[in-house]
Structure formats: C-alpha cells, structure tokens
Design goal:
Layout (H helix, E strand, L loop, with lengths): L3 E4 L2 H8 L4 E3 L12 E5 L5 E8 L4 E6 L10 H17 L8 E6 L8 E6 L2 E6 L5 H15 L3 E7 L7 E7 L6 E5 L2 E5 L14 H10 L4 E5 L5 H8 L4 E6 L2 H13 L9 E5 L2 H10 L6 E4 L4 E5 L1 E4 H13 L7 E6 L7 H9 L4 E6 L18 E6 L1
Helix pairs in contact: 2-3, 4-5, 8-9
Bound molecules: S-adenosylmethionine.
Length: about 375
C-alpha cells in the first residue's frame, strides 16, 4: 500500500478499469494533499491502483494498477516504466549519438503527468504541476540511469504561460545551447530555456514526409519557429525556402540551424522574414508571388501581433489566403496542435472552398503513444493537400 487510501466513485473506477490513467477530479472532493501518493480504491474497497494527486490540473494520475505488481509508487516502479519506454524507442531505432526523441509520453507510457524528451546527452522532463516534482526527481534519476545521460532538466509550468517555467537539474547541467540530431539534421536546442527547447520532436516523421515532396519546390513555411520544417525541405532539395515568424530571435536561431547543416548563405534561396504570417501572405498575394509548397503550423493561441490569434476562428481564413499563392499542382501542408478544433480536414475544406485533394493525413509518431481510453490525448493533426 502507498501512503494513504482514497476511495473514488464508480464512474472514476470504471474509467481506470477501462484503461484510463488521468482521472478527472473536477467534481470530486478529495481528502489528499497536492502530490500525495495514494492507493485508489473503488466504492467496494477493491484496489484500483497507485496514484498521485494533482489538484492543480484536477487529476489523479494513476501510475500502476494491481496487475503491474508494485506495492508502492517508488523508484522501482518508475525505473520499470522508464526501462519499458526505452525498450520501445530502441525497437523504433531512435536512440543514438546526439539523437532527439520522446522517451516518456505521459499516460501512454504509464507516467501520466510527465513527459520526457531525450536531447542528445541530456533530457528535458516536464512535470505538469509543481506538486509532481518529487516524483519527477525519481523519474529523472531513472531516465538518467537507463538512458545513460549526463543530466536531466526538470521543468514545471508555474503560472500557465510558456515562459513561466521553473527548472532544476538532476546530474550535470547542460550548456545553455547544444546541438542534437534528428536523423541527418543537426539542430540547436536550449534545454534550460522556456517551455519549448527549439525542437518539436512530434514532427520528426512529418519532416521525413515533407522531404519527399520538397525537391525542386519553392517552399513557404509560416510560423516557422527555429526552422526545423524549413530545413528538412531545404536539405531535401527545395529550390528555395522562405520562413516566416514574428520572432526575430527564432529567425536568427533558424538561420543558425541552416548554417550548421551546410546551408549558410544560399544566394537568396533561403529567406528568413521576421513578421506576421497573415500580413506576409497579403503582401505576397498582392505582389503575385507563388509558392508551390506552403506549410502552416500555427500556435493554438497567440498575441504575437497585438491582435489575438485563435486557431479555430482564424485558420480557415489563413488557409484561404495561403491557397491564393499556390499554383495548381502545388501542395498545402497543414498542422494543428489541438483536438479542440475538430477535424482539420473540415477546416481546410472551409478555407479551400472546393479546391484541392487530401494526399496524406497524420498525427503523432510511435514515440508518442496514447491510451484508447483517452482519445483526446492524440492532439496532433497533419493534413497535406494537392491543389
Ligand atoms: C507552434 S510554433 C511553430 C512550430 C514550427 N512549425 C516547428 O515545427 O518547429 C509557433 C510559432 O509561431 C510564431 N508566431 C506566433 N504568431 C505568429 C504570427 N502572427 N505570424 C508569424 N509567426 C507567429 C511563434 O513565434 C512561434 O515560433
């Protein structure tokens, strides 16, 4: 048994027995402290599993069921989780010198409330709330040991914004910047920076797919961040790549990523525009510019240009604007990082007004497992269309 026993109602018990691991507690009164390790019981007193109380997110995080065979939520259980997660990534061929990949993906890897990305010799482990940090430290020890890393940075969101992040390091601290590899690509990451390190590992397979379509094409990448998608296209033989992002800081970072992959300079083939995507498209349409592969991977919400951007409200209009600069036979590649939106294909249909055919649809890669009982965890949608 763990520290304390906690009885949950029949509905929550059924959710756990059905494979659910993030129990919604918004309508429950729970007599347990934030971060408490508890043994969950059903109304009949039967054990459901070992869990962590996460009141900040109104969740009980179930890290083991009786079938897993662990008497308490401790380092032995967490080590077993990490070993299994690493075995799966090894089977996928992901670990290797300096490689970046997701090692732990929350409930899908039996560690609800935590994710962990390996970034070469270091890892960044996210704990979804400050109360989960003591368990995050034990998890970090296990990650460091099993994956043979120099250190693990534990990050916790403190107030909700991407920059309101506390971090601490288990083992050796990483340098402020270091370079990791994703297959052939070399990309700079900032492991101790804000919430985002400069690389979204969930896009790895989409970068590979884009590489198939990019050769010879004139590419426009909107919301380009540190340029990973742009770089995948450029390395694959794109004729030209224009990256647009409001942040001058990430544009300099993207340019650095191009240079470290042997694509410095480029005689005007690689353009980095610091500005608003909507304004860029308006100007491009007016100047009759044409791009035969346009990538759009916008944030869900942003206030980057003073006026708030919201994906569900603004995406169809942006798609319509983008389609106006794509000639027939060109490609439109769309991503959305939320399930709240509904179907991205439907949204594209609204923006494209009858034009285009879907040539590919995708989502999270195999190092981002999710549970059938928690379908909303599959947040990533990617759609490619031929216009
Ligand atoms: C989700 S990230 C894009 C990730 C990127 N596609 C990748 O795969 O690495 C969102 C980016 O959009 C940028 N951004 C936010 N609002 C913008 C706007 N109105 N116009 C252009 N870029 C914007 C942010 O600076 C940030 O770099």
């Amino acid at each position: 048994m763990s520290d304390a026993a906690l009885t949950v109602p029949a509905e929550a018990a059924a959710f756990v027995r059905g494979g659910g691991r993030d129990v919604d507690t918004s309508r429950l009164e729970l007599a347990a402290a934030a971060g408490a390790r508890v043994t969950l019981l059903d109304p009949g007193g039967d054990e459901l599993g070992l869990a962590l109380h996460d009141p900040d997110n109104q969740r009980l995080r179930v890290l083991a069921t009786p079938a897993d065979g662990f008497p308490r939520l401790d380092g032995a259980l967490l080590g077993w989780r990490v070993a299994r997660a690493l075995a799966w990534r090894t089977r996928l061929g992901l670990p290797g010198p300096d490689q970046a990949f997701r090692l732990l993906h929350a409930a899908g890897d039996g560690v609800p409330g935590f994710t962990c990305d390996v970034l070469g010799r270091w890892a960044v482990l996210h704990a979804y709330a400050p109360a989960l940090v003591p368990v995050a430290r034990q998890l970090a020890d296990a990650v460091r040991g099993f994956a043979r890393l120099d250190g693990v940075v534990i990050k916790t969101r403190t107030r909700g914004g991407a920059s309101d992040v506390a971090h601490e390091v288990v083992g050796q601290a990483p340098p402020e910047r270091h370079v990791v590899r994703e297959g052939e690509l070399a990309l700079e990451v900032h492991a101790t920076g804000g919430l985002n390190v400069g690389l979204f590992t969930d896009m790895r397979e989409h970068r590979l797919d884009l590489a198939r379509h990019a050769p010879g094409r004139t590419v426009l990448n909107l919301f380009s961040y540190t340029g990973a998608l742009s770089l995948a296209c450029a390395r694959a033989g794109a004729a030209a790549v224009t990256s647009v992002d409001t942040s001058a800081g990430v544009q300099a970072w993207a340019e650095g990523n191009f240079a470290r992959n042997g694509l410095g300079g480029g005689g005007g083939r690689w353009r980095f525009e610091a500005g608003d995507a909507v304004r860029f498209l308006a100007r491009a349409a007016k100047a009759r510019e044409r791009y035969d592969l346009v990538l759009i991977d916008p944030p869900t919400f942003s206030t980057a240009r003073g006026k708030a951007w919201a994906l569900d409200r603004d995406y169809p209009a942006l798609i319509e604007q983008a389609a106006a600069v794509i000639p027939d036979g060109g490609l439109l590649w769309l991503a959305a990082n939320t399930h709240e939106l509904g179907s991205l294909v439907r949204l594209a249909q609204r923006g494209l007004r009858g034009r285009g055919a879907v040539i590919a649809q995708g989502g999270l890669p195999a190092d981002y497992p999710t549970l059938p009982a928690q379908p909303r965890d599959r947040y990533l949608q990617v759609v490619a269309l031929r216009l």
